[in-house]
Description:
The chain has 89 residues and is α+β, with helices and mostly antiparallel strands. The chain has helices at residues 2-19, 36-39, 55-67, and strands at residues 31-34, 75-79.
Amino acid sequence: MTHIKLLVCIAAVVTMSCMARDDGQALTPPMGWLSWTRYACETDCKRYPKGCIDEHLYRAQADAMAADGYRELGYNYINIDDCWSEMER
Length: 89
């Protein structure tokens, strides 16, 4: 019975790889930097000037990705995540 399950899995993988589109889309996963992982929703830049979400943070991360060679490796996105749209801070 285990051999049958293995053969079914192999057949599924082969079938899926044959059905994949060859249009150049999503050759790599979307890669980039996401603020939420480190900064969550910290927007108090007066109290935490080096640990808050603001325009400077996003610009600095984009510059660092380009300067450190991440852009050439496929890291193409700076993801503006949560908390950016709040009207009051």
